[in-house]
Design a protein that fits this description.
The chain is an alpha/beta fold. The chain is built from 11 helices and 12 strands. Strand 4 and strand 5 form a beta hairpin.
């Protein structure tokens, strides 16, 4: 009898120590049908992160508006950084979020806006919230499916969620400098950016981090901007040398695009050991100790 009691505890403990999230109560990516079926769930917070004017023109019934810009702020020379912890807690509570809330992040569409939704979702997970999802295809998918929208603004009572930062979800420059030659790095940018044919003005070097593997974030989506099947995503990752139990770091230009791969790998696939580099190439390309590789694939 004692053995029977101990074994489940050991299993749960092992999962917790491995980094696996065991408290999730909803899928990491939900579709329109799931959202419609759960509209009346008292735990549900639909977090519409579009511009205020788009929200006012029509939103999913019950959705609260929390513009994306407050979730990814400028800090010194860096764009799209996580807000300070006290500010982040205020933002979360203003949306009515409680410790047991189910939060579904809604952007305008999938495709070019998918990583905006995952960036907010990743920030919530980093803050310590377990039950967060993104809506596949965003608001556009809801409208395309012929579902009702509402123009009346929604204000939730202030939430009670307290931020408990999960540092293991994020990589900073110090971590990158220590692990660049020992861990696999996933470059979520386009081939042109990775190869060095193009770069954003605020990125100081052309090319990519030494040894990084290119998997553009667009590969996880189909032509309609919807998420491709899990099996296809796993095949892409494993074919390029990634495996579920290894520690992975994903990066892009500002820490936004790479959040899509973090979300899909960690939350959707359940691979436990991945970090997202918030500063990304905007930060580390300025470091003279790091020489980007250009016109080569690794």
């Amino acid at each position: 009898m004692k053995v029977k009691r101990i074994i489940p505890f050991v299993v749960v403990l092992g999962l917790a120590l491995s980094g696996v999230v065991v408290a999730r109560e909803l899928p990491a990516v939900v579709d329109v049908a799931w959202l419609e079926a759960n509209l009346n769930n008292p735990k549900l917070i639909i977090l519409d992160v579009r511009k205020a004017e788009d929200y006012k023109a029509g939103h999913i019934p019950g959705a609260v508006n929390s513009f994306f810009g407050v979730w990814a702020v400028k800090k010194g020379p860096l764009n799209a950084e996580i807000p300070e912890t006290d500010d982040l807690q205020d933002i979360i509570q203003a949306a009515g979020i409680k410790p047991d809330s189910w939060v579904v992040v809604v952007e305008s569409e999938g495709g070019p806006r998918f990583h905006f939704a995952t960036r907010v979702a990743w920030t919530l997970a980093y803050a310590g919230l377990d039950n967060v999802a993104v809506l596949d295809g965003g608001h556009a998918a809801w409208v395309k499916a012929g579902k009702a929208v509402n123009a009346d603004p929604v204000k939730k009572p202030a939430g009670t969620f307290k931020v408990k930062v999960r540092k293991e979800y994020i990589a900073d420059q110090e971590f990158v400098l220590k692990t660049l030659n020992t861990l696999p790095y996933l470059d979520a940018r386009s081939y042109d950016a990775y190869f060095g044919r193009a770069k954003l003005p605020f990125v100081a070097q052309e090319g990519h981090l030494p040894g990084a593997i290119s998997i553009p974030k667009e590969w996880m989506l189909n032509a309609e901007g919807m998420l491709v099947p899990k099996k296809q995503i796993e095949e892409i990752l494993t074919a390029l040398g990634f495996s579920p139990n290894q520690e992975i770091v994903t990066y892009c230009d500002t820490g936004m695009g790479c959040s899509a791969w973090w979300w899909i790998i960690h939350e959707h696939l359940g691979w436990p050991k991945i970090r997202s580099y918030d500063g990304s190439t905007e930060e580390i390309a300025k470091n003279p100790a790091v020489k980007f590789h250009k016109y080569i694939w690794r």
